[in-house]
Design goal:
Length: 306
């Protein structure tokens, strides 16, 4: 089975199936302040109530993060900011961010992760330290990072022993917490390894539901760039193989095949711990939201008249 799906822009959208619609129900999407600024009104694109992660790229001004959260809340969305441990200088700063998010944007959900930089800016170097800080007490929902293809930062020699140990720690923490927990993953391009990883989580007693990362429609060159930056090793080799075919290099990637395969597997009883799809709109928020609607995601509500 082909790993990626390509079609010309002129082709009609593929008909959705009940299993694909069920998989896309309640999907989430990620934005950055600079990409959110390009959207005049999210209500023209996303179903009201959609969970929208706000990516905190190192060096982003917190005021921009907060303004994005305030705007999303005002337009009817559930903002979920990233809290990258290695970019946070100290507990006081973390507590201030959380207090301002809660007070000004009604934030009650957060993605807790180590962050993409190698050296900590201050007191924190892991998501576990953030969770243990007590600052997130009272949050309704907390998500932690997952890596279906492993993570060389955590397991430099390969494998997933340390990654799994960290997830077991987080599962124990989740069992003691009043917040709902889930695992939000890095994006992937092949269904089989994702399903195998989900099976290993269940076998290890890690019961947090999985919100699976999927790259939205984008040029193949764009995906390769992000795969390199994010350390998506096995998927990178798949993309590079596809890039050798010039006829496909010029066509947009769409995630139809991996999501259809996952939907069929779930309908057959596998991957039951895969609860939601989380989109990384690498080719743009509008393209991603349009694709989701075309393939069974709930249509956006009409924007209110200004």
């Amino acid at each position: 089975m082909a790993l990626l799906n390509f079609r010309s822009r002129a082709a009609a959208p593929a008909p959705s199936s009940p299993s694909l619609e069920a998989l896309l129900a309640g999907y989430s999407i990620e934005v950055m302040p600079r990409t959110a600024e390009k959207i005049a009104d999210f209500r023209a694109l996303l179903p009201v109530g959609t969970r929208v992660y706000i990516a905190h790229i190192d060096g982003t001004d917190f005021a921009d993060m907060l303004a994005t959260a305030v705007r999303l809340r005002a337009e009817g969305y559930e903002p979920m900011p990233h809290f990258p441990a290695r970019s946070i200088p100290d507990r006081a700063t973390l507590a201030d961010w959380v207090a301002r998010y809660r007070g000004e944007a009604g934030v009650k959900q957060g993605l807790i992760l180590a962050g993409g930089i190698a050296e900590p800016r201050g007191a924190f170097h892991s998501s576990m330290q953030l969770l243990d800080s007590g600052v997130f007490d009272g949050f309704e929902r907390l998500h932690v990072a997952g890596h279906p293809e492993g993570n060389r930062d955590i397991d430099p020699k390969g494998g997933e022993a340390e990654v799994m140990a960290a997830l077991k720690w987080k599962q124990d923490f989740a069992n003691r917490s009043d917040a709902a927990f889930a695992i939000a993953t890095q994006f992937a391009f092949e269904a089989g390894p994702v399903l195998d990883w989900a099976d290993r989580l269940a076998a290890a007693g890690i019961a947090m539901p999985v919100h699976l990362g999927i790259a939205g429609p984008a040029k193949l060159q764009t995906l390769i760039k992000f795969a390199i930056a994010c350390g998506v090793g096995p998927s990178l080799s798949v993309l590079q193989k596809r890039a050798r075919d010039v006829s496909k290099l010029l066509l947009p990637f769409e995630p139809t095949e991996i999501l259809t395969a996952l939907a069929q597997a779930k309908a057959a009883g596998r991957g039951r711990n895969i609860e939601r799809i989380h989109f990384f709109p690498l080719g743009g928020i509008t393209a991603n939201a349009t694709w989701a609607t075309e393939h069974g995601g709930a249509p956006a509500q009409p924007a209110a008249a200004s």
